[in-house]
Write a structure and sequence with these properties.
This protein is an alpha/beta fold and about 325 residues long. The protein has nine helices and 14 strands. Helices cover about 30% and strands about 25% of the residues.
């Protein structure tokens, strides 16, 4: 039996602060219908697909921004998307801001099956940006202020395969893909909102597209899985965000890509059985991996230079200083 899924990377253009949920859901439904016309089994929407990227602003009372969060899913404003998915027989992935009944705030994504039922929920693990108000920035990135991190990576049996999810900054960390890969993930869905300008180091601005492709393609190849990376792009409230949504094969090859910064659908046929070409050869984890020598990955958080190496470097630095002092004395 064929396990080929037709997947649509449903890139969205900017969502402005004044745009209503109803306006945005109408755009999502339009993309879903385009996916159905293209024969898609699954349409993948980006991170925070229902609102503008509100963490670029600081408010002292965080509850003032609770209106950007969904308290139920589906809710009255998102129910039409679920109903249309069920009518069309097309599943979807959706990123949004979640406010739980007990008052917790997460950057969340859900996986919805063809009948409109929720097959999986994921909460972003690697929160980027900063905690404190930093008015010197052209725009802020306060995810660590508005959200709390999720507690892990899971996979879900859906669409005839093993699917996983990650969100935006998660895609930059190899641990994300490996955690999914170790659970047999065949298709990873990753939404993102990525500003092209990076205030802490503007030299990276010109590399945003390259870095995006680099992490998506290497994550796919090194874990023998399909990866779908989907952006919210364009000029959103004066912040220009990266597009280049793409579907990546287990070979690391790009199979479909968006070329604009607006609402656009890139479609690819994803043969889940192709994953075995890599999972059972070069990346046969059970045969080749050496977890007994990877202890630092889970026992240590930040980088720590070993004491013996630091000692050598310290002596080298002192010798350099002594040599320089001697040369200065000779010159005098």
């Amino acid at each position: 039996m064929s396990r080929t899924l037709t997947v649509g990377a449903a890139q969205m253009g900017a969502i402005q602060r004044a745009d209503t949920r109803a306006d945005v859901v109408e755009r999502l439904i339009a993309l879903l219908r385009r996916g159905a016309e293209a024969g898609c089994d699954l349409v993948v929407f980006p991170e925070l697909a229902l609102t503008t990227f509100f963490p670029r602003w600081y408010v002292q009372d965080r509850s003032d921004f609770d209106h950007f969060f969904e308290t139920e899913m589906p809710g009255p404003e998102t129910r039409p998307l679920f109903d249309e998915a069920s009518r069309l027989g097309v599943g979807f992935h959706l990123g949004y801001a979640e406010l739980t009944p007990d008052g917790r705030h997460f950057n969340t994504a859900i996986l919805v099956e063809r009948d409109g039922s929720i097959a999986g929920l994921y909460r972003k693990v690697h929160l980027p940006g900063h905690h404190e108000h930093e008015p010197w920035r052209e725009f802020q990135h306060l995810e660590r202020y508005y959200f709390e991190p999720g507690d892990g990576f899971g996979v879900y049996g859906a669409f005839g395969g093993v699917l996983g999810m990650a969100i935006c900054n998660d895609r930059r960390w190899p641990e994300t893909y490996r955690m999914l890969g170790l659970q047999g993930c065949e298709l990873a869905l990753i939404g993102y909102n990525t500003p092209i300008h990076y205030p802490p180091d503007p030299s990276q601005d010109a590399l945003q597209g390259f870095h995006n492709r680099l992490v998506l393609q290497s994550g796919a190849y090194q874990n023998g899985m399909w990866v779908v990376g989907v952006a919210k792009a364009g000029d959103e409230e004066g912040c220009v965000m990266l597009g280049e949504s793409a579907v990546i094969a287990p070979s690391g090859e790009i199979r479909a890509v968006c070329t604009t910064d607006g609402d656009e659908l890139a479609v690819a046929a994803c043969d889940l059985d192709m994953c075995a070409d890599y999972k059972e050869t070069l990346f046969d984890f059970g045969y080749y991996r050496r977890p007994e020598v990877y202890g630092l990955i889970t026992s240590q958080r930040g980088a720590e230079v070993p004491d013996d190496v630091a000692a050598v470097l310290g002596r080298t630095a002192r010798r350099a200083e002594e040599t320089e002092e001697m040369e200065e004395g000779t010159d005098a």
